[in-house]
Amino acid sequence: MRLLRLLTIFLVMVSGCAEQSAPEAFFCPQEQCGERITLAINNAKASVDIAAYAITDEQIAKALEEAARRGAKVRVIGDKLQANSKYSKLLELEEKGVETRVSKSGLMHNKFIVIDGQLVVTGSFNYTENANTKNSENIIFVHDTKTAQRYSNEFFSLWVAS
Fold this sequence. Notes:
Layout: H1 2-15, E1 24-28, H2 33-42, E2 47-52, H3 58-70, E3 73-78, H4 80-83, H5 90-95, E4 99-102, E5 111-115, E6 119-123, H6 129-133, E7 137-143, H7 145-161
Parallel strand pairs: 2-3, 3-4
Antiparallel strand pairs: 1-7, 2-5, 5-6, 6-7
Helix pairs in contact: 1-2, 2-3
């Protein structure tokens, strides 16, 4: 059943990978947001930039590590308080070859990913196990290069400031 669910998620995502298509909205935990994000990262070819309040979800962390291992440029900006939390994956990601930075000013409350300059994943979803299995959360997949460029510009500003 889980394999069928993942295959369905994959087919929905592949069908939406044109330069621009209608945004796709998902609600968690009932629509497996963590699995959808993991699959999107697994399909990254060139780059994954993620600005996150918290990353504690093991599957998402492994997907980021694998993307870096495949040769994609993977960069993560995390919140300064969350980066030092007991469950944070930020240091582990850095040790596995992922470029990481910690926000130096204010609360890093962004929750977005830009993949290959074409796909933006954003919403209320924190990249945590609780967000994936317990919390009422949402994500939206935006397949649009202009929107991706705006998020990439914001990511770059945050990266330079971190």
